[in-house]
Amino acid sequence: DQLRMNSLSLSLSLSLPGCSAAHGRFAQKLLRDLFSNYTNALRPVEDTVHIINVTLQITLSQIIDMDERNQILTTYLWIRQVWMDAYLTWRKEDYDGLDTIRIPSSYVWRPDIVLYNSADDQFSSSMETNVVLQSDGQVTWDQPAITKSSCSVDVAFFPFDLQQCALTFGSWTHNGNQMDLFNALDSADLSDFVANVEWEVLGMPAKKNVILYGCCSDPYPDITFTLHLKRRASFYIFNLLVPCMMISFLAPLGFYLPADSGEKVSLGVTVLLALTVFQLLVAESMPPSESVPLIGKYYIATMTMVTASTALTIFIMNVHHCGAEARPVPPWAERVILNHLARFCLVYEVGNVQEAESEGPPLQGGRSREGKRDLQGLRRDVDYIANAYQDQRTAQLRIGEWRRVAKVMDRFFMWLFFIMVFFMSVLILGKAI
């Protein structure tokens, strides 16, 4: 122990700038006098009924990581604790005006202040540093620490969300009748904060709480620092939202493809698969919870729209390929779709085709009986050909009408889904403004 005291005193004398050899000897003498009968196992109060007051100040240096899936916030903090030690006082005049010394923190009594909501499995992420002793007994302990705290992450408005993460500090064994806590400032110090690429710090107010736990009747004070975070959404806008919007605008174009191209359904299925991939990327980074993220709702709405457009495309293709055996277009469909909806959707290229009347040529009656039989046979042949041509013409007109119905429905649903995609994109981007 004597060798330990001598080496520590030598380091103190060398660490004081401009101090003479005599000043260093006074530092050694002061160290021996202070710790000759000192113990760091008990509270440094003259009377056990006295309360020791600890002032706590937090400086946020860096946000290392925010694990949304495991709901763990990792931060780099500077923790300052100040208290009065009744047994570490001296008169400066007796030690050549020496007012301050710095010694290892393990030499003195230290408050057992811990992070209540710690999520660190090691419980030893702080650094052992020196404490500053002043002649009036004030002890200042500045300690850097990397903390992992549990944080309830609400992803309802992801990626335009605001998060509040609480860091609660308090004594683990001392109640409020033995040790009390005070705030050095109304909030944590953010002057040395290193900006984070994903999170913007809006503030970190501090609040003192006095809690009565069910196990004990004594009050336990703590200080809670609430870290207010706002996510920087630029990364997610350009990597998740904009590609999804561009893909979703392809879904209405499936109605513009010609029905005979054979690619209408394939385009809808391809768009649906692409949106599914983006949905899986979002689901992997989000914690499993009942609240669906805003971007997840947008993906689900877009996928529902694409599914509906694909189903409507199949129905319209069935209408387009109605054959000659199909029924005629109903009067209500002809009135609503072919007349009003066609003008509304600007479909003018196909007009009404008038049926051509086919009449047999007038036949002149012959004088001979054999000539009459020949003319009757020729008339039957001409009537058969005319009837066949009339049936074929009627079938073609029926097919043309059904194709026109399909084309008008294609145009109508194309503009309808374009409007839906536009409004959905405006609503999701409105959250970013």
From TrEMBL:
Q: Name one GO molecular function term.
A: acetylcholine-gated monoatomic cation-selective channel activity
Q: Where is the Neurotransmitter-gated ion-channel transmembrane domain?
A: 240-348, 364-428
Any transmembrane segments, and where? Answer: 235-258, 265-286, 298-317, 412-430
- Domain Neurotransmitter-gated ion-channel ligand-binding stretches: 28-232
Keywords from the UniProt entry:
Cell membrane, Disulfide bond, Glycoprotein, Ion channel, Ion transport, Ligand-gated ion channel, Membrane, Receptor, Signal, Synapse, Transmembrane, Transmembrane helix, Transport
| Localization, UniProt | Synaptic cell membrane
**Cellular-component GO terms for this entry:** postsynaptic membrane
Q: How does it sit in the membrane?
A: Multi-pass membrane protein
Task: Identify the InterPro entries for this entry.
Answer: Neur_chan_lig-bd, Neur_chan_lig-bd_sf, Neur_channel, Neuro-gated_channel_TM_sf, Neuro_actylchol_rec, Neurotrans-gated_channel_TM, Neurotransmitter_ion_chnl_CS, Nicotinic_acetylcholine_rcpt
Q: Which domain of life is it from?
A: Eukaryota
Family statement: Belongs to the ligand-gated ion channel (TC 1.A.9) family.
Q: What is this protein called?
A: Cholinergic receptor, nicotinic, alpha 10b
Organism lineage: Eukaryota, Metazoa, Chordata, Craniata, Vertebrata
